[in-house]
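---------- Forwarded message ----------

FYI, see the Multifunctional fusion protein record below. Original note from H. follows.
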Amino acid sequence: MEFLDLPPMLGAAGSVRLPGSKSISNRVLLLAALAEGETDIRDLLLSDDVERMLEALRALGVDWRREGDSLNYRVCGVGGPFPVKTGDLFLGNAGTAFRPLTAALALSGGEYRLSGVPRMHERPIGDLVDALRQLGADITCTANEGYPPLHLKPATIRPGGVVRVRGDVSSQFLTALLMALPLTGVETTIEVVGELISKPYIRITLELMARFGVQVGQQGWERFVVPGGARYRSPGTVFVEGDASSASYFLAAGAIGGGPVRVEGVGRTSIQGDVRFAEALEQLGARITLGDNWIEAAAPAGGVLKAFDLDLNHIPDAAMTLAVAALFADGPCRLRNIASWRVKETDRIAAMATELRKLGAEVEEGADYLVVQRPPRLQPAAIDTYDDHRMAMCFSLASLGGCRVRINDPKCVNKTFPGYFEAFAQVARPVPVLAIDGPSASGKGTVAARVAETLGWHYLDSGSLYRLVALAAMRAGVAFDDEAGVAALAAGLPARFEGGRVLLGEGADRDVTDEIRSEACSVGASKVAVLPAVRAALLDRQRDYRAAPGLVAEGRDMGSVIFPDAGLKVFLTASAEARAERRHKQLIEKGLAANMENLLKDLQERDARDAARPVAPLVKLPDAALLDTTQRDVDEAVAFVLDLVGRGGKSSG
Ligand SMILES: Nc1ncnc2c1ncn2[C@@H]1O[C@H](COP(=O)(O)OP(=O)(O)O)[C@@H](O)[C@H]1O
Ligand SMILES: Nc1ccn([C@@H]2O[C@H](COP(=O)(O)OP(=O)(O)O)[C@@H](O)[C@H]2O)c(=O)n1
């Protein structure tokens, strides 16, 4: 399975241009297709769901073209029902294509088959089918009654009078009926049965129908009158707003990660209900500023979001973002009236509860609510995304909690926001890592410790982990070449680093600081470090040292394997003779016996082993600054590295 590892983030600030709204894009495409005249659509969303709609329209005889590589499309309307009278349409997992097309095709007098991905076949459509059957449509659910796939056959449509449709499972059923009924030319009243959910989406539908010339009469949220003789007419040019649901991730990032983060493409004048996500964030204490076409969010004055108890029925999609934002609130948070989550791309209530728990949260899950209580500290987790773009996008925010987050199947964001993770990287600032790699006795430990102290950053001496493993192997009588045996020791190594001391044992009761520096441990470390299973066992443990405000990590593969995304990389080296001399001096000072000739030979052997091993060999990376200290003292080396950090990793030479 593909995955994306997000490092712990320090904070978020900046600005993002939003992709077009999915809800508006697919509605406008259908309306433009059914309308008289040509429609120029600007800033259309390019994503899987929109692709499904475009393909379907082409198959149904609608001529459209994209202007070059732009987001501008021209659609030649057919001025009534679809001209192509047979078709087999695959609509993926695009609810915004499946539901409205079902209604429009049922009233088009042809024979059509509509299907989607397996999850689409688990998402209910019975309420819409029932409503269309009242109008005389001939629709068969070919697998399970009430669910796609569907088989539509020509039938005598009897419009007029009253059609009843349930509004409490998905508002898309009402949207689909509203958009299709003008095809009949007869005044028809729709009566909504049950409490209509997600009302703002109906507002988008009515607003866009009006732009295409059809004014629907409205009595509360219970009755809608589609006028007789109404026809869709192209308004000429339509601009698609930025996606307000997609805006929620960035606004939340600003509220959690300091901010300000600005989204461009939606604002005060937006017709999308999800802009009200900004109001919800405001209730959590976030500082929100609105322009006509932008919204900006920053953290509360006190830094921490307030716990909340909110009815989120009006913003079901953006509300998912609040479930993750709850990890940053100062108490238990309740998300109410979100039953529609259960019939979306996945059962979002169950999925959300499962994944939030992986991060350590306590979650109570109800039929139509969630209660989320954050843990004292988030724990790193691999998040499953259930082929649900919003799961992937909202869990990226957990990385602002200072822990690593792995997003499985990150490409699922293509449904609505193919460039999501690039946009997130534009505003989220990773905890900085300075990776110092180089051969033995080049001065990595000395330089790294001093730089870490000067910057106030954490320090990882990765070599000591391999030394500890070697020590543990010797103690347990496990041979250095017994890969599985040594890896098992490495995985369960009970070690702690405290104030320059290295402590071993369950109760961290044995101080092994000096013991692991012995030549036996040095040789052993170099041998066990060759074993891939040992390196794998130590991978996550090393990554967990990355914490605010920053980390200085030294070893052999800090820049290549452990922190390949480190913004600061140094390759520290010196001639073998200079290094052997330093090691000699170091040992003599410690009162240990040392022989220059043996040291040089041993060091050259270790250099060769480190450089030649197939897994994580020691190499100078192209993006690492070279620091040769053969002719430089410690102060000069430290100054070189600090200067590099000051320049954000760009070496001057
Ligand atoms: N640039 C330098 N010039 C001279 N001696 C150095 C320099 N850098 C480090 N040393 C000394 O060399 C010895 C080995 O350095 P150390 O930091 O332990 O290397 P490493 O971590 O790369 O094995 C230490 O005694 C250290 O004081
Ligand atoms: N990131 C790292 C760090 C150390 N090592 C190995 O672990 C051994 C001990 O590392 P160290 O940094 O304490 O060694 P010295 O450079 O101090 O001799 C080295 O000889 C390397 O073979 C590694 O493979 N990868």
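H. also flagged this: The radius of gyration is 31 Å.
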